[in-house]
Amino acid sequence: MESRDRPQAAAQKPLSATTLKIYADDWRAFCDWCAAQNASYLPALSATVAAYLTMRQNNLGGSGLRVAHAAIAFHHRQAGLAWSSTDPVIATLLRDVAKTQTRAVRPAAALTATEIALLLSSCDHDPGGRAGFLNLRDRALLSIGFAGGLRRSELVALDCEDLDFTTAGLTLRIRNPRSDQPSAAASSSSSLIVSRGTQAETCPVQAMEIWLRRSGIEYGPIFPRLTAAGTIEARLTGNGVWKILRRRAAQVGLQAPAGQRLSPHGMRAGFIAEAYGKGAAEAEVMAQARQKDRSTARRYRPRAGSPA
C-alpha cells in the first residue's frame, strides 16, 4: 500500500511550501476518514471522494471543499494515478455547495497602534533563556508586521540577510512579495524603512534587535516556529502568524467588531488606515505599502469600527 503521507513523486508543477503543507493536512484528514470507513484512499473512487466532501461541507464551505479536493487530486497524481478534476459526480457536488453556501466575506478589522500596543502587552514577560523566546519572537513579529505594513507572506519570508540596522531604524528587503514560487524571488524585490519608535515598549526595531540577539539567529528565517521549550524549528508559515494573533488576542480580550474578523491582514490595514488618518499623501502610502492600484489603497481608508 502507498504511504498516506508521502506518495511516490511524479512530475508536476512546483508548489509553494505553504500549499504543500495545506495539501498534506487535507490529505491526512481524508486518509483518516477513509480508514474509518474501510474505504480505499489511494486510489480513491469518485463516490468515496464525493461522500467525504459531502461530510465536510458544513464546516469547510465551498472554497475549503475545493482545496480538499485539490489535495486529493494532487496526491493521486504524485502517485502516478489518473485523476480527473472534472469528474461529474464531484463537479456537481462542488457546484451545488457553491450555490447554497455563498458567504459574505468579512473584512479584516484594522489593527491600529492602540490594538497593537494591547497585543504587545501580552508579550511582556521574559523569564530569561529559551523560556522567553516565544514572547520575544511574537513581540518582534507583531510590531514589525504593523510598522512595516507587511503582508503575512512577506513577514514570514524575511531572512536575516534582508535586514539592515541603522541608527535611524531598519531597512527591510521584501523579496518576491506576491509570488509563491522561489524561482521568481530574485527578480522581484523592494525595500522599505522602519523607523525607531519613541517608546521602547512598542519600538519595532528594538524588538527585532532583542529577538535576534537573544535567539542567536544570524542567518536564514528570522521568524521560526518554536516549541514550548523554546527550541527553534523551521520557518513560520502564514497560518502560524494567524495562530499567534489569535492566541495573543485571546490573552488580552481583543475582539473584532461585528461583521469583521481578526486577521494578520488587520496589521497591514491598520498601518495604512493610520497613515491616511495622519494626513499622509496617497502616493506615500502606496509606496510604503507597495501598492500599485489607487482603488486598492483607498479601500484601507479609516472606516468605522475597530477591535474592542
TrEMBL record:
Residues 106-308 form the Tyr recombinase domain. It comes from Acidisoma cellulosilyticum. The lineage of its organism: Bacteria, Pseudomonadati, Pseudomonadota, Alphaproteobacteria, Acetobacterales. GO terms for biological process: DNA integration; DNA recombination. GO terms for molecular function: DNA binding. This is Tyrosine-type recombinase/integrase. Residues 286-308 are annotated as: Disordered. It comes from the Bacteria. Keywords: DNA recombination, DNA-binding. Pfam families: Phage_integrase.
